[in-house]
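Convert to structure. Protein one:
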Amino acid sequence: MIETVDKKVQVLDFEKPIYVMQEKIEELKKISMDTNMNYSSEIETLEKQTLEYKKELYENLEPYQKLQIARHPQRPNFFDYVELMTEDFIEFHGDREGTDDRAIAGGVCKINGTPIMLIGTVKGKTTKENLECNFGMPQPQGYRKALRLFEHASKFNLPIVTLVDTMGAYPGIKAEETAQGTAIAVNLKQMAKLDVPVISVITGEGCSGGALGLAVSNKVMILEHAYYTVISPEGCASILWRDAAEANKAANALKITGDDLLKFKIVDEVIKEPMGGAHYNPELMANTLKNSIVRALDEFKDMSPFELRNHRYDKFRALGVFAQ
C-alpha cells in the first residue's frame, strides 16, 4: 500500500517510520525557531539516527519490499531516462504493418557522444498515460516494432541498449489472436543473431517472456531494487497456494532480486540505486545508469560480429547449469 505524505513523495508502508522520525526533526526545528531555544544537539542526534535507520532498512529489504519499490508509480520510466541520459533522441514509430504499440518505444540517440539504438518498455505516470501504453504490457505489434529496430541497428552497426520495465506481455485474447507467443519467440531468435553489442537493463519489473523478448543480450544488468522473474509473485502464489495474497512467500522462493540473480548468473551486474530507490533521485539514478551502460559498451566494442553472437549463445546456454 502507498500513502501520500506530501505533494512530492508517495511512501510505502514499510517506509513510514522514516517519515515519523523526519516529522519529529521538523517539529524540533520549528520549536527552536519559535522559542529561540537551541535544540541543535537533539536535532543532530535525531538526524543521525534517521540516516542510520534508513541505511539499515534499505540495505536489508525483503524481496517483496523490493518488489514494491520496483512498482512505485513515481519510479523513472523509459522517457525519463531518455531525457536525463541521452542526447539527440529521435523516436521511430510503428511495426511497418500498420500499428504503433506505445508499450514499446525506441529510436536512435547518443550516450556520451556514442550513437546507439535505445529501445524499452514504457509505463505511464498517470492513468491517461498508462491507458495509452497499456500499463507497460506490450502486444505482438510492439515486439515486431522492437525487432524492426534491432535489425535496423544491426544493419547500420549501432550498439543496442534496451531498458526493461514490464509486468509482462499483454495476456489478452486479441494479443493471442495476433500471435503474441510467436512475436516473442522470433525476437528471442533474432536477438541471438544480431551482429552488434546488445546491453539490457532491468529498470523496474522484468516479468516472464514479456521482459525476455527485449533481453537476449551480451550483458544483462539490473537496478538494485528491480526484479526479474519467470512469473510474478502473485501469479506464482495463485498457482501454488491458490491465493495471490501469498505473494510475499512466493517472492522469497523465486529468488527474483539482484543479489540472487547475480549469484545464479542470470544477470551480470547490479546497479546501485539512490537511497530509497530511483524515484528519490532520478537524476543521480540516470547518471549512474549511463556510466554503467558506457562501461558495458566498452567491454564489447572490439568484438567481431562472430564473437558477439557466440558470446550471447554461450551466455544463455550456460544458464541453469550446475556442477555436481
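Protein two, convert as well:
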Amino acid sequence: MPRALGIDLSTQGVTALLVDTDRGALLARARAAFGPDFPSRGHPEGFLPGGASGEVHADPLLWLDGLQLALDRLAQSADLSQVAALAVSGQQHGSVYLADGFQLALADPDPSKSLAAQLAPFLSRPTSPIWMDSSTVEDCQAIAAALGGHQAACDLTGSAVTARFTGPQIRRFARLEPAAWSRTARVHLVSSFATSVLAGRDAPIDTGDGAGMNLMDLAAGAWSPAALAATAPDLARRLPPVVPGPTLVGPVSAYLVARHGFSPRCQVVVGTGDNPSSLVGMGASRPGQVVVSLGTSDTLFAAIDGARADPAGLGHAFGNPMGGTMSLVCVRNGSLARDAIRRELGLADWAAFAAAVDAAPPAQSAVLPLEHDEITPRRPAGRVAVGAPVSGPSLARAAVEGQALSLRLHSRWVGTPTTRLLLAGGASENPAIAQVFADVFGAPVLRLGVSDSAALGAALRAAHAACGSSLADLEAAFCQPAPGIVQPRSRLAPAYAALESALAAALR
C-alpha cells in the first residue's frame, strides 16, 4: 500500500498532501500559511513588502519554518512512518544562496532544534528573490546581448531572458554584492533547497525547474556554458547538477526520522517547480491534453514531444518532469479584464455576464481587452478589436472570444493537436465561457475538479519514481475531471479561423 507525500512550497504557504496510491485516495492534508501562521515575520502575502526598484524577496528561513509546521500538522492526522516516498513542488524562479558548510549542517542537524536556526548561519544572502521580482531589467539586457539577442536566448534556454527568472537574479546579486557572491558556495532553487533539507544532502535540480532560470540548454537538458558565462563569474561550480524528473535523491534525512516520525526507508525524489508539478497534478503530462487555467492571469499548459521553444519569444518552454518539455503561455489580463467588462456593461454578477455571452451570436467579433500592459502579446493597455463592430452587451462575448483566440494564437508554436481542453480556475465553472473555449479550440472541454494540483503532482511523481507506480494509473485515479463534457460546434471553425487571422494581423 504505497503512500506518497507531495509538498508544495508556494508563495503564500506550504501544503502537504498524503495519498494512498493503491486506493486512489487522499489520506490527509495539512497547510502552513506564512502570513497568518507567522504574523511577526513580516510576510503578510508571503513576501517582504516595500522592496525598492522592483525587488520582491522572501525569507528562506520562513520557508523552513512553514515546512516544519506543515509536517507537524500532517503528523497529527497521519502516520508518517508509512510514507514510502515524497517529492517537492516549489514556487518557480525563487533562489537561495548558501555559503560553505551548509552541506555538513544538512547532513547532521540536531532534531531538538529547528532547521531554520541550524541553517541560518550558512545563508550568504539573507533573503531570496522570487518570481514577482522585476529588478533585473539591466541584467536581462546584458545576458541577452551576450547570447545574441532575446530570440537566440529563447532558442537556447526555452525562454527569452525574463526579469523574474533566476539567471538575471543571480547576475544582479553578483554585480551589486560581489563580496557576498564570493562567499556563495551554492545557489539553489526553492524546490532543490527544500529537497536538500528533506534528504539531508545537497540535491540536484530537475530539468522542469532548471529550465526556468535562463541557464539550461533546453535540448541538452544540461547547463549551458554560454548562458553561465553571460550570467556570473564561476557560476558553474555554484550550481547543483541538473537531472531528469524521476531521479531519486536518496532516503529522508535522520532529522525527519527523529523529529517527524518518517521511516528511514522513505525515498526522496528530486523536486520540481510548481508549474511542471501542476502539469502532472492536472493529468496533462502527455501531449494532446491542454490545460487552460482561468484566474487573475490566464495560463495555458501543454506537454510537448521533444524540445521546442516559441519562435516569437513570448511563451516559455520548461522541462516536463515526465519527459520531453512543456509549454507555458501566461496572459496577464485574465479575470481582471473580464471583470472590468462586466462592470462596464453594468452586469450585476457572473450569471448575468454568462447570459450576455449566450445572447450574442458567436464568431462575429473578437475584442482583446488589455486593462493593463500585456506580456502575451507584448502590448500596452488598450483594446484590440477585429471582426464586426461591437456594441452593448455583445462586448461580453467578444471579449471572451478575443481572450480565447489570443491564447490559441500564442500557443500555436506548441505544435501538438489539442485532443481535449482541460479548464481550471474560477471562470472555468461558467458554462458560457467553457462553451466559447470549446468552440475556439475545436476540442471537447472538461472542467478540472483537482485542487492543490502542484502538491498532488509532487505526490504522483514520488509514487511513480520511487514506487514504480504507473503514471497513467495514477492520473486515472487522482486527476479525473468533473462530470460533463462541453462539445465544440464544428460549424463555427471557419469563422474562428478568420477571426484568429485578423487578430494576428492586428497584433503585428
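The chain is about 35% helix and 25% strand. Residues 283-508 form a domain with the Nucleotidyltransferase; domain 5 fold (CATH 3.30.420.40).
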